[in-house]
């Protein structure tokens, strides 16, 4: 198929640092190319891909100090897609909702993956206005706050099977926290769990400007209080394998309706078990007692740390291989593309161009 992938412009594809949506768009795009599809990626100009790249901006908006408002650039993105829309058998949007009025006349070939939380008060009215767009959730739990809409399916995220090597041998004895410093991610819980367990906690996390006050007032004092805490800061992809692979477990002590939680399957790919709080998608991603432990409070999390020896790290990696590879993700999306009511296929177009469909029709009526 000839497929368009339309990415957000905040980060490059893949992102240089933090950026879950752009990372998934990258993994999906490259897996589709591997599977023989003709893919065009609409993204920032500093993106790297084996697909055809349409560079809408020179660089990722988050890295451009001159950008004050992202909206004009996303309007430019939509115009670039509009100019070439007729070329594609299917168009896959990863930009939430801004494109929906534009694609009404080609809605049968479009699909939109919703990557974020959907329990926000402004969203129900919007999606009631556009009820016919084919939407994809990244977990079943993510769907719960939504009004009736046209769900095309749930597709769990996936990673290239070789991007994070499994570390089966002995870990280095520390607990890991990876992601963002924010109230919903609950790094304070991670710090207390590690302290009560007598374990070193390494925190590799970015601090957005919106969360700077939370860091300074709530988390930085805890980091100073507990000598078992090391704050590393934001890490890049090259550092991730060593950071996750060396941990006894990843702590995922969230306190919000997590739509998916990419870091959980990154840890699993490294053969590192996950201790996660029962929120959002966690019960769909973690196989309790196999790839980690699902807990309801800090007491249970501390107990889970003492039970990590019950888990086979080979089994953690096997759970990843069975469910969360990019190859599986791409195959799931192709099945959805083909099921769209207006989807075309390259095979049908090539037959038309060669006149074979006319021949077949004449034979049928002859």
From TrEMBL:
Residues 169-308 form the Glycosyl transferase family domain. It comes from the Bacteria. InterPro entries: Glyco_trans_1, Glyco_trans_4-like_N. GO terms for molecular function: glycosyltransferase activity. Residues 18-126 form the Glycosyltransferase subfamily 4-like N-terminal domain. Pfam families: Glyco_transf_4, Glycos_transf_1. The keyword Cell inner membrane does not apply. The keyword Ligase does not apply. Keywords: Transferase. PANTHER family: BLL5217 PROTEIN, GLYCOSYLTRANSFERASE. This is Glycosyl transferase. It comes from Sphingobium herbicidovorans (strain ATCC 700291 / DSM 11019 / CCUG 56400 / KCTC 2939 / LMG 18315 / NBRC 16415 / MH). The lineage of its organism: Bacteria, Pseudomonadati, Pseudomonadota, Alphaproteobacteria, Sphingomonadales.
């Amino acid at each position: 198929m000839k497929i368009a992938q339309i990415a957000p412009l905040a980060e490059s594809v893949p992102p240089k640092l933090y950026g879950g949506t752009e990372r998934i768009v990258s993994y999906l795009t490259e897996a589709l190319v591997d599977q023989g599809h003709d893919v065009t990626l609409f993204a920032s100009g500093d993106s790297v891909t084996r697909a055809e790249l349409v560079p809408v901006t020179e660089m990722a908006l988050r890295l451009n100090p001159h950008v004050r408002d992202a909206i004009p650039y996303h309007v430019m993105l939509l115009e670039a897609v509009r100019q070439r829309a007729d070329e594609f058998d299917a168009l896959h949007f990863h930009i939430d909702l801004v494109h929906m009025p534009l694609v009404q006349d080609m809605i049968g070939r479009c699909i939109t993956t919703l990557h974020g939380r959907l329990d926000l008060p402004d969203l129900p009215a919007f999606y009631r206005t556009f009820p016919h767009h084919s939407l994809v959730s990244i977990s079943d739990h993510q769907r719960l706050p939504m009004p009736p809409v046209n769900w095309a399916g749930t597709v769990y995220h996936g990673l290239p099977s070789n991007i994070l090597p499994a570390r089966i041998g002995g870990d280095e004895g520390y607990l890991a926290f990876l992601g963002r410093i924010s109230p919903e991610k609950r790094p304070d819980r991670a710090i207390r769990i590690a302290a009560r367990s007598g374990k070193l906690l390494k925190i590799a996390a970015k601090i957005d400007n919106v969360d700077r006050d939370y860091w300074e007032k709530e988390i930085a004092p805890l980091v100073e209080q507990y000598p078992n805490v090391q704050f590393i800061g934001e890490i890049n992809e090259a550092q991730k394998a060593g950071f996750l692979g060396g941990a006894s477990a990843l702590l995922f002590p969230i306190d919000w309706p997590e739509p998916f939680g990419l870091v959980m399957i990154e840890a699993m790919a490294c053969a590192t078990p996950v201790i996660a709080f029962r929120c959002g998608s966690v019960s769909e991603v973690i196989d309790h007692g196999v790839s980690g432990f699902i807990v309801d409070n800090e007491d249970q999390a501390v107990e889970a740390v003492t039970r990590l020896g019950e888990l086979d790290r080979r089994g953690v990696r096997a759970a990843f291989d069975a469910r969360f590879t990019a190859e599986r993700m791409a195959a799931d999306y192709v099945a959805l593309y083909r099921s769209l009511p207006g989807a075309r296929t390259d095979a049908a177009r090539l037959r038309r161009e060669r006149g074979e469909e006319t021949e077949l029709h004449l034979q049928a009526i002859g």
